[in-house]
Design a protein that fits this description.
The complex is a heterodimer of chains A (104) and B (464). Chain A is 7% helix and 27% strand. Chain A has 104 residues and is mainly beta. Chain A has one domain: 2Fe-2S iron-sulphur cluster binding domain, sarcosine oxidase, alpha subunit, N-terminal domain (Ubiquitin-like (UB roll), Roll), CATH 3.10.20.440. Chain A has a 6-stranded mixed sheet with strand order 1-3-2-8-6-7, covered by helices on one side. A two-stranded antiparallel sheet of chain A has the order 4-5. The longest helix of chain A has 7 residues. The two termini of chain A are 23 Å apart. Chain B is α/β, with parallel strands linked by helices. Helices cover 34% and strands 20% of the residues of chain B. Chain B is globular, with a radius of gyration of 22 Å. The chains are: A mainly beta (104), B alpha/beta (464). The interface between A and B is large, with 41 and 48 residues.
Chain lengths: 104, 464
């Protein structure tokens, strides 16, 4: 499986001891990081599709705006900025079960 | 007194209060929603092995000192991370733990230090991925240790703009320029007030020098018009602003950028202070905040407020108000007598006075122009969660809506996931402008103040 490259880290990860699945692709992460940091590091910005079919990315970055909602381990509407990574975590972006025609 | 003091929010205010209590041998219970204490200002990097040099030596030192003091008192502080306080009354709190189970926590003395969030100012294109609030972007480089994509343009008002520009550059990111909405003469006029904190004033000058040295342009009296791009941000339009921040549309400039950081200041979190029934009032910037006295006591003497929750003054002031609140709690519990408490309070108030005068200067020059509310077009979304546009709000105002509760019922603003935190500023500005009244109400959040799953209620139990 192809591993997504982290291109925007300010400094390289000291220990990339965690692997998660981002839209089916493997990506490395470090203990303590948020899911949003990983999404930012690979340069993925279209994170959510809201209930009105509008695309959204991280906006407040601190858990207030609910714009970075992704599916985590199959559970939708989880705030990427408020979720700490775990080994084997599955993250899917632009998931919305309300909007017709969206991936689910 | 069997119950320990409870602190909500482990940022600079809550940490300083916990340290002050611990120094007098008093144990406390401290809740924070994040995985590390420190709040948005002093959380530090979330992963190991990050050299914080790019954030500046003084910041790194302050971060280290606070966390060392906190760690030295750890035996007295029951720190519950990943916990969210989602409701409560004057005797107990409802707390969601890390496993998303609800608990009732009784308290006798409470300190609310939940901080603030950013003021969102809508303009055409603000919802595009790639547009972020400035503090959120700064958190991404400070705690996430990740750069934003491509080149970043910074717009808004206040000292945070050049600070983040310098930190971004030092982190290796490209900065396309800083657009400060206020004219330079308004800032220069406040020089005397700003000199109340000579070190911060000097830091400001050295930031401007750093920007000049590294070719980052600082545009005074310029502001946002719109953002655009297919699916993601690609371009930002800016224009010179008049005294009231009316954009001069004959001189619009377009900048191709990938990231836009927007910073127009902050709004205290009042979800909990409102739910606890505390007395509130409005600031000059139009935001609601709970009122407190010189002891940081709210209208309920056993409930204290510290940090930005009681009005925006920043991290250094938050530590001092946290300390004062703790001194008041220590006096209420009979640990300190009145003379000891007053002596300590005066020491902290003395330090706070200079910060207060400095902040007053900042507030005067960053005062938002009245024309800011005209930035959105008819189809610009104001409430993103419920997809309410400016024309929906215009119509409601035409139909006679005069306060926040009616606007909510008429248009559905604030009824979505963020519970109005992102649209309350604009809605309040519009209502105040159209009615001419200072008090048009504010959003009244109900329990739970953050979304929780139904399963959270499964094992509800009381814990002291």
């Amino acid at each position: 499986m192809q591993t997504l490259e982290r291109v925007l880290d300010i400094q390289p990860l000291k220990a990339a001891d965690i692997t998660l699945q981002l839209n089916g692709q493997a990506v490395q992460a470090a203990e303590g990081e948020t899911v949003l940091s990983v999404l930012n590091a690979v340069g993925l910005r279209r994170l959510a599709q809201n209930d009105h079919g509008q695309p959204a990315g991280a906006f407040c970055g601190m858990g207030v705006c609910h714009c970075c909602l992704v599916a985590i381990d199959g559970r939708p509407k989880r705030r990427a900025c408020q979720t700490v990574v775990r080994h084997g975590m599955r993250v899917e972006t632009e998931v919305n079960r309300v909007v017709e025609g969206a991936q689910s | 007194m069997s119950l320990r003091p409870v602190i909500v929010g482990g940022g600079s205010a809550g940490m300083a209060a916990a340290i002050e209590l611990a120094e007098q041998g008093v144990d406390c219970l401290l809740f924070d929603e994040a995985s590390r204490p420190g709040g948005v200002v002093y959380r530090g990097p979330l992963r190991a092995g990050v050299d914080l040099g790019y954030l500046g030596a003084r910041y790194s030192k302050a971060l280290q000192t606070l966390h060392e003091d906190f760690a030295a008192n750890a035996e007295h502080i029951d720190l519950r991370l990943n916990h969210r306080v989602v409701g409560g009354d004057t005797e107990r709190l409802m707390v969601l733990d890390a496993d998303e189970q609800l608990h009732e926590i009784d308290y006798s003395h409470l300190l609310l230090s939940a901080g603030c969030h950013e003021r969102n100012v809508p303009f055409p294109g603000w919802t595009l991925p790639g547009v972020m609030l400035l503090g959120g972007l700064q958190l991404q480089i400070k705690s996430g240790a990740v750069k934003p994509l491509g080149s970043t343009l910074i717009a808004g008002t206040g000292p945070l703009l050049p600070l983040v520009a310098c930190q971004l550059h030092a982190a290796g990111a490209k900065v396309a320029g800083v657009y400060e909405a206020c004219a330079f003469n308004r800032i220069a006029k406040e020089s005397l007030a700003l000199l109340n904190k000579p070190q911060l004033f000097l830091d400001g000058l050295s930031m401007l020098a750093y920007m000049k040295l590294n070719g980052i342009a600082m545009h005074y009296g310029w502001g946002l018009v719109s953002a655009s791009g297919e699916g993601e941000l690609r371009e930002v339009s800016l224009a010179p602003y008049g005294q009231d921040w009316k954009a001069d549309m004959s001189r619009v400039r377009r900048e191709p950028v990938d990231t836009l950081a927007v910073g127009y200041g902050f709004i205290p979190r009042t979800q909990l202070s409102q739910q606890l029934g505390l007395t509130h009032g409005f600031s000059d910037d139009g935001y609601l905040r709970a009122v407190c006295n010189v002891w940081q006591q709210s209208s309920q003497a056993h409930i204290h407020l510290a940090g930005d929750m009681g009005g925006i003054r920043g991290g250094e002031a938050a530590m001092l108000t946290g300390r004062i609140a703790a001194v008041s709690i220590l006096q209420q519990r009979g640990v300190l007598d009145a003379n000891q408490a007053i002596e300590r309070r005066e020491r902290y108030l003395g330090k706070l006075a200079a910060i207060t005068r400095f902040r007053a200067g900042v507030e005067r020059y960053t005062q938002r122009g009245a024309a800011q509310i005209e930035l959105p077009q008819a189809d610009t979304v104001i409430c993103r969660c419920e997809h309410v546009t400016r024309s929906d709000i215009d119509l409601a105002l035409e139909q006679g809506v005069q306060d926040m509760a009616s606007l909510k019922m008429r248009t559905r603003v604030s009824m979505g996931d963020c519970q109005g935190r992102m649209c309350v500023g604009y809605c309040s500005d519009r209502l105040r402008a159209s009615t001419g009244r200072a008090d048009v109400g504010w959003l009244r959040p109900r329990f739970p103040i953050d979304p929780i799953p139904f399963s959270a209620f499964q094992h509800l139990a009381t814990e002291a």
